[in-house]
Amino acid sequence: MKKVFLCFMSFLLTLGVLGACGESNTSQSEARSIEEIQESGKIIIGVFSDKKPFGYVDSNGDYQGYDVYFGNRIAQDLGVEVEYVPVEAASRVEYLVSNKVDIILANFTVTEERKEKVDFTLPYMKVALGVVSPDDALITDVEQLNGKTLIVSKGTTAETYFTENYPNVNLLKFDQYSEAYNALLDGRGDALSTDNTEVLAWALENEGFSVGVESLGSIDTIAAAVQKGNDELLEWLNNEIVELGKEDFFHADYEETLAPVYGDAATPDNIVVEGGVIE
């Protein structure tokens, strides 16, 4: 009986250990304080590596783009170096929750659902959805997509919007933007939808494709994001955005990173938000 009792107690202890491990695996890792970031000498920022001209890796292996330009300034004003970590649309929240990055600057559209999981700063850009398709079969009205295949990236507002509003559109989903655009080039879908700022830039660099639907859904905002409850870093970033607005920083960012791509096809005031204030 004693041996049976000891075995039973050992079994219970094993269950307790496993339960504790399970709890720790699902818990949120604590975000770093500004002091800890500065003591480490670097800020870790999640960005896209394949979403030109907002976040991408150039031929020299360096990060470039509108979001990266902002990230460089953040690091400068904190007095630290910057380490960029590539993220995908669907992994942005997880990278903050698990504390793999301090900030996400990955063309992150603010939504009510995302606000439940991360904290967003004041906006620094505004955006809607757009649809790009081949010129010889141009989609000019979203209703033309019913029964057809639309390419989207997982975890994006485009995926959510079409899932909720257009159930008769067949969605072909990819993890990476580069995979999605390659699918459009290969003819595996009739069109592709993501932020209108991004599809416009892509169409301008890919002959034979145009943005037939220039604005779809509501006008949304793009903002930086930090781990939920990281009030110190959130306040610092909000103050940074307000102060940068006084020098028209994001217009300078536009001229440096977006204007060479857009040319006369877009105007900065339709995209840029200064000082966190939407006009």
In short:
This protein has 279 residues and is an alpha/beta fold.
Characterization of the model:
This protein is of the alpha/beta class and 279 residues long. It is built from 10 helices and 11 strands. Strands 9-8-10-7-11 form a 5-stranded mixed β-sheet, sandwiched between helices. A 3-stranded parallel β-sheet has the order 5-1-6. It is globular. The termini are far apart. The N terminus is likely disordered.
Strand content: 25-35%
Shape verdict: globular
Distance between the termini: 78 Å
Main sheet properties: 5 strands, mixed
Structural class: alpha/beta
Strands ordered across the widest β-sheet: 9-8-10-7-11
Counting DSSP H or I runs of 4 or more residues, the number of helices is 10
Q: Taking Cα atoms only, what radius of gyration do you get, to the nearest Å? A: 22 Å
What is the H/E order?
A: HHEEEEHEHEHEEHEHEHEHH
User: What level of helicity do the residues show?
Assistant: 40-55%
